[in-house]
């Protein structure tokens, strides 16, 4: 392939733009100075220890994991059957219903969180954590509908029909024939939903309170009053998490399946 | 009563246009019956009604005197082979074939034996542990067939099973299907739009058009004596001309020529038809004789083993296939003989 | 007949949850903004009569437009470069693009604090070189929000575009070249028009994303460069003005829908092959 040198340089600069800031964070996490400096003086791993000593980081990390996990599970439980129904049955107003299922992406996250807080927590007196879980369920659902839906649409519908002729009920056919063949889609949507829920801030912003703070929110609050390399260290840990997840996805599905 | 009976089946999706219009079909035990027709004629719909994948709006469906109209698909126990083969991608060939038997909770050694037997019959012994995507088109086809047959179905349903294969394999597979079908003596319904494939494999053929069966006969009968213009056109009759009836077996064309037909005719039919192969170009015959018409060569096409001529005549343009013994030129005047024993009135 | 209800039954849980926890909450906050004794638009009229509010509204639109434009300008050539790379390279480049996208937005915004801040990388470098004597005010400016948002959304634009550009066969470029176009002309006349659907979808994502983003303007914008999302949060928490927050919420939703519609109309004009859906 012939390649124009100008285009190559341009793309190189864009990638530099994308990665240099992250590299700077990585470097600053090793500095000995109590505020962030670049270039750094000295070398220490202390800031990584400080991250794990910070109770609010640890607690909010655990909460983030749980909320992202259960939000995704709930979205799968509700979304997989819905995606199946939308893909396979002649539903009245099918396109409208599908758009409706994808609509949480259209409503700004902060508004989703705000309205849930107002309605569920203030008016209906739900515990804050339930509101948070529901908010993250709403983040996750569109990923499930979109990814699992397209996986089912790509699956040859006659394999279900043939399983009926061989004696499967509709439920058996779904469990024995459809489900085993859409596991990659389910896994991909799980990963996407989980990552996006874990990283999301706007939805959680209103649904936070004492003891109920997600990790990104906790980090953001910390940044407002602190400027020490433990922020860099936590950032690096989160980036490592991203690398691990990407590696897992690449090895199981190939990254192409989620981009 | 026949083994399989479809009585006044009507299928409509929107309550306006009927996909099937009061369709009736009887199939004897052990027969292989084809549903032949162009796309949209209702042949696949008919098969899906039989399978139980579509519930008819009206009508009854019986097998072995049992009314199965309301019996759901998974309780009918028919084997079905789909156009896409529809093999389960996540199961090995052996597991694909055993799928239906496992659902019936048969004993493991019984399942193993039956799977082994059917893999042998279909020539798949070596491939049991492979996955569908590791097989060729023809092999997948056999697996689909084996999977449908192993459950010992009362009926075998085949939905254009050969259309995804290349031409050579298609011929081999249709012989294979016929062999296995007659070996097991299983009553079968075969859907196709390919008349050669259909004639070669079937005991009887139902030619379908717009939701009705135009003719239900043996392949020979349909080939020789199409009953309707649609059937005639579908199986290769290309010359059609209007006639008026004089008396039984005697007709008059627009230009006054008398045509005699010794073939089956019904009193209300008025269109004469004949295959291009059956018209002869003759010399030395007087014009105005019965069953002859004179004309001019308009177009000549080389077909390989013969030439095809388009000839302008007083009763319309006629297509004629002739061997290369005598080659006519465009513009030549010729006389055509339309033999009484080849002229069909539809 | 019960068979016919099954598809709807398995849709029902999702529909019910969405209605209960998305639609009803939204109605519950939006509805009161139209009522003050009787039906009224007073809250919206007074919102748009207030110069301060309108300033925030237009700043949000302006910043979103600039960010979208920059993302298109940087994204199209980069995406084209990726889509034309050999297959093994393409996977790596896509992973490199995906990585920032999957990294937390707080982390990505924080990176720019360390770069643009008073003692940040840029100021340190420039002062070290003697170019400036006093640190420049880069952080807590519109510029900081713009660069942070571009940084946030550029990967999304690139990935969306690569998806479209990959489907353009290289033969099309070659065909254009055989007809006498040089590579630049072929790019402008052939690749660019074919990538319009990708540009539109990417622009919708970037524009609405920037317009409704909370993290980046909060961290990089400071108190003087408020955008709609931060304004909503401020109204609701610091000012306790729930009514005002709800008004902003609807303004954001409507603006998002209007922008999507506008982009689709533009797409429909430019791309005769049919509507782009996002």
Automatic annotation (TrEMBL), chain A:
<dbReference type="InterPro" id="IPR035906">
    <property type="entry name" value="MetI-like_sf"/>
</dbReference>
<dbReference type="GO" id="GO:0005524">
    <property type="term" value="F:ATP binding"/>
</dbReference>
<feature type="transmembrane region" description="Helical">
    <location>
        <begin position="178"/>
        <end position="198"/>
    </location>
</feature>
<dbReference type="GO" id="GO:0005886">
    <property type="term" value="C:plasma membrane"/>
</dbReference>
<feature type="transmembrane region" description="Helical">
    <location>
        <begin position="67"/>
        <end position="87"/>
    </location>
</feature>
<feature type="domain" description="ABC transmembrane type-1">
    <location>
        <begin position="61"/>
        <end position="249"/>
    </location>
</feature>
<feature type="transmembrane region" description="Helical">
    <location>
        <begin position="230"/>
        <end position="249"/>
    </location>
</feature>
<keyword id="KW-0067">ATP-binding</keyword>
<protein>
    <submittedName>
        <fullName>Spermidine/putrescine ABC transporter ATP-binding protein</fullName>
    </submittedName>
</protein>
<keyword id="KW-0997">Cell inner membrane</keyword>
<dbReference type="Pfam" id="PF00528">
    <property type="entry name" value="BPD_transp_1"/>
</dbReference>
<feature type="transmembrane region" description="Helical">
    <location>
        <begin position="7"/>
        <end position="30"/>
    </location>
</feature>
<feature type="transmembrane region" description="Helical">
    <location>
        <begin position="99"/>
        <end position="120"/>
    </location>
</feature>
<keyword id="KW-0812">Transmembrane</keyword>
<keyword id="KW-1003">Cell membrane</keyword>
From TrEMBL, chain B:
<dbReference type="Pfam" id="PF00005">
    <property type="entry name" value="ABC_tran"/>
</dbReference>
<keyword id="KW-0067">ATP-binding</keyword>
<dbReference type="InterPro" id="IPR003593">
    <property type="entry name" value="AAA+_ATPase"/>
</dbReference>
<feature type="domain" description="ABC transporter">
    <location>
        <begin position="4"/>
        <end position="235"/>
    </location>
</feature>
<keyword id="KW-0547">Nucleotide-binding</keyword>
<protein>
    <submittedName>
        <fullName>Spermidine/putrescine ABC transporter ATP-binding protein</fullName>
    </submittedName>
</protein>
<dbReference type="InterPro" id="IPR047641">
    <property type="entry name" value="ABC_transpr_MalK/UgpC-like"/>
</dbReference>
<dbReference type="Pfam" id="PF08402">
    <property type="entry name" value="TOBE_2"/>
</dbReference>
<dbReference type="InterPro" id="IPR027417">
    <property type="entry name" value="P-loop_NTPase"/>
</dbReference>
<dbReference type="InterPro" id="IPR003439">
    <property type="entry name" value="ABC_transporter-like_ATP-bd"/>
</dbReference>
<dbReference type="InterPro" id="IPR008995">
    <property type="entry name" value="Mo/tungstate-bd_C_term_dom"/>
</dbReference>
<dbReference type="InterPro" id="IPR017871">
    <property type="entry name" value="ABC_transporter-like_CS"/>
</dbReference>
<keyword id="KW-0813">Transport</keyword>
<dbReference type="GO" id="GO:0055052">
    <property type="term" value="C:ATP-binding cassette (ABC) transporter complex, substrate-binding subunit-containing"/>
</dbReference>
<dbReference type="GO" id="GO:0005524">
    <property type="term" value="F:ATP binding"/>
</dbReference>
From TrEMBL, chain C:
<feature type="transmembrane region" description="Helical">
    <location>
        <begin position="242"/>
        <end position="263"/>
    </location>
</feature>
<keyword id="KW-0813">Transport</keyword>
<dbReference type="GO" id="GO:0005886">
    <property type="term" value="C:plasma membrane"/>
</dbReference>
<protein>
    <submittedName>
        <fullName>Spermidine/putrescine ABC transporter permease</fullName>
    </submittedName>
</protein>
<feature type="transmembrane region" description="Helical">
    <location>
        <begin position="7"/>
        <end position="31"/>
    </location>
</feature>
<feature type="transmembrane region" description="Helical">
    <location>
        <begin position="143"/>
        <end position="165"/>
    </location>
</feature>
<keyword id="KW-1003">Cell membrane</keyword>
<feature type="domain" description="ABC transmembrane type-1">
    <location>
        <begin position="57"/>
        <end position="263"/>
    </location>
</feature>
<keyword id="KW-1133">Transmembrane helix</keyword>
<feature type="transmembrane region" description="Helical">
    <location>
        <begin position="186"/>
        <end position="207"/>
    </location>
</feature>
<feature type="transmembrane region" description="Helical">
    <location>
        <begin position="56"/>
        <end position="80"/>
    </location>
</feature>
<dbReference type="InterPro" id="IPR035906">
    <property type="entry name" value="MetI-like_sf"/>
</dbReference>
<keyword id="KW-0472">Membrane</keyword>
<keyword id="KW-0812">Transmembrane</keyword>
<feature type="transmembrane region" description="Helical">
    <location>
        <begin position="92"/>
        <end position="115"/>
    </location>
</feature>
């Amino acid at each position: 392939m012939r390649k124009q040198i100008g285009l190559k340089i341009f793309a190189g600069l864009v990638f530099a733009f994308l990665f240099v800031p992250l590299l700077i964070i990585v470097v600053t996490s090793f500095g000995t100075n109590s505020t962030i400096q670049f270039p750094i003086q000295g070398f220490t791993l202390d800031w990584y220890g400080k991250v794990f000593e910070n109770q609010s980081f640890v607690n909010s990390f655990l909460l983030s994991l749980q909320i992202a996990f259960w939000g995704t599970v709930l979205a799968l439980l509700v979304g997989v059957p819905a995606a199946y129904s939308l893909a396979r049955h002649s539903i009245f107003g099918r396109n409208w219903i599908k758009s409706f299922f994808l609509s949480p992406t259209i409503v700004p996250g902060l508004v989703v969180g705000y309205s849930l807080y107002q309605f569920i927590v203030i008016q209906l007196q739900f515990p804050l954590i339930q509101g948070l879980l529901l908010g993250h369920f709403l983040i996750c659902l569109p990923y499930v509908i979109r990814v699992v839906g397209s996986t089912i649409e790509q699956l040859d519908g006659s394999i279900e029909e043939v399983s009926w002729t061989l004696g499967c009920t509709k439920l058996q056919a779904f469990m024995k024939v459809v489900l085993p063949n859409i596991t990659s889609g389910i896994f991909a949507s799980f990963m996407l939903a989980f990552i996006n829920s874990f990283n999301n801030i706007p939805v959680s912003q209103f649904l936070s309170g004492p003891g109920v703070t997600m990790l990104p929110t906790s980090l953001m609050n910390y940044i407002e009053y602190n400027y020490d390399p433990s922020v860099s260290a936590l950032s690096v840990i989160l980036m490592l998490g991203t690398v691990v997840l990407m590696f897992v996805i690449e090895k199981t599905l190939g990254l192409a399946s989620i981009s | 009563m026949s083994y399989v009976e479809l009585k006044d089946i009507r299928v409509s999706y929107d309550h306006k246009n009927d996909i099937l219009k009061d369709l009736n079909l009887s199939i004897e035990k052990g027969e292989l019956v084809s549903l032949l027709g162009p796309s949209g004629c209702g042949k696949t719909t008919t098969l899906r009604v039989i399978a139980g994948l579509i519930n008819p709006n009206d009508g009854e469906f019986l097998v072995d005197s049992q009314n199965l109209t309301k019996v759901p698909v998974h309780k009918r126990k028919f084997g079905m082979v789909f156009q896409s083969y529809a093999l389960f991608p996540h199961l090995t060939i052996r597991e694909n074939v055993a799928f239906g038997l496992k659902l019936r909770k048969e004993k493991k050694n019984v399942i193993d034996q039956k799977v082994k037997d059917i893999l042998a019959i279909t020539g798949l012994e070596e491939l049991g542990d492979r996955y569908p995507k590791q097989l060729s088109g023809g092999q997948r086809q056999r697996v689909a067939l084996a999977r449908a047959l192993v459950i010992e179905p009362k009926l075998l349903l085949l939905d254009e099973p050969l259309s995804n294969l290349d031409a050579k394999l298609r011929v081999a597979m249709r012989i294979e299907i016929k062999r296995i079908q007659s070996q097991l003596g299983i009553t079968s319904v075969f859907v196709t739009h390919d008349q050669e494939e259909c004639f070669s494999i079937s005991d009887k053929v139902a030619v379908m058009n717009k939701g009705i069966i135009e003719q239900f006969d043996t392949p020979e009968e349909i080939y020789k004596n199409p009953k309707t213009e649609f059937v005639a056109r579908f199986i290769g009759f290309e010359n059609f001309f209007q006639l008026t009836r004089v008396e039984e077996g005697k007709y008059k064309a627009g230009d006054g020529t008398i045509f005699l037909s010794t073939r089956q005719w019904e009193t209300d039919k008025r269109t004469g038809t004949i295959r291009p192969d059956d018209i002869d170009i003759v010399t030395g015959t007087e014009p105005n004789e019965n069953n002859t018409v004179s004309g001019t060569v308009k177009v000549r096409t080389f077909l390989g083993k013969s030439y095809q001529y388009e000839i302008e005549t007083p009763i319309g343009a006629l297509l004629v296939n002739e061997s290369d013994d005598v080659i006519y030129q465009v513009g030549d005047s010729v006389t055509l003989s339309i033999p009484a024993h080849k002229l069909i009135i539809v | 007949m019960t068979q016919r209800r099954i598809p709807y039954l398995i849709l029902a849980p999702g529909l019910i949850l969405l209605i209960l926890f998305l639609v009803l909450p939204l109605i519950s906050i939006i509805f009161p903004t139209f009522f003050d004794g009787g039906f009224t638009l007073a809250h919206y009229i007074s919102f748009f009569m207030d110069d301060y509010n309108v300033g925030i509204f237009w700043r949000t639109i302006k910043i979103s437009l600039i960010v979208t434009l920059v993302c298109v300008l940087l994204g199209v050539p980069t995406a084209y470069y990726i889509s034309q790379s050999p297959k093994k390279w393409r996977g790596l480049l896509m992973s490199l693009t995906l990585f920032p996208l999957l990294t937390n937005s707080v982390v990505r915004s924080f990176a720019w604090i360390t770069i643009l801040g008073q003692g940040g990388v840029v100021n340190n470098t420039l002062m070290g070189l003697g170019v400036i004597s006093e640190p420049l005010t880069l952080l807590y400016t519109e510029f900081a929000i713009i660069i942070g948002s571009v940084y946030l959304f550029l990967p999304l634009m690139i990935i969306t575009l690569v998806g479209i550009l990959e489907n353009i066969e290289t033969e099309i470029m070659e065909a254009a070249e055989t007809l006498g176009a040089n590579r630049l002309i072929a790019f402008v006349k052939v690749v660019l028009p074919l990538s319009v659907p990708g540009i539109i979808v990417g622009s919708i994502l970037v524009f609405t994303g920037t317009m409704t983003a909370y993290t980046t303007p909060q961290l990089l914008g400071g108190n003087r460069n408020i955008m709609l999302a931060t304004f909503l949060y401020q109204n609701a928490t610091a000012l306790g003005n729930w009514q005002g927050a709800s008004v902003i919420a609807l303004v954001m939703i409507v603006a998002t829908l209007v922008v999507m519609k506008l982009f689709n109309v533009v797409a429909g004009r430019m791309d005769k092959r049919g509507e782009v859906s996002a």
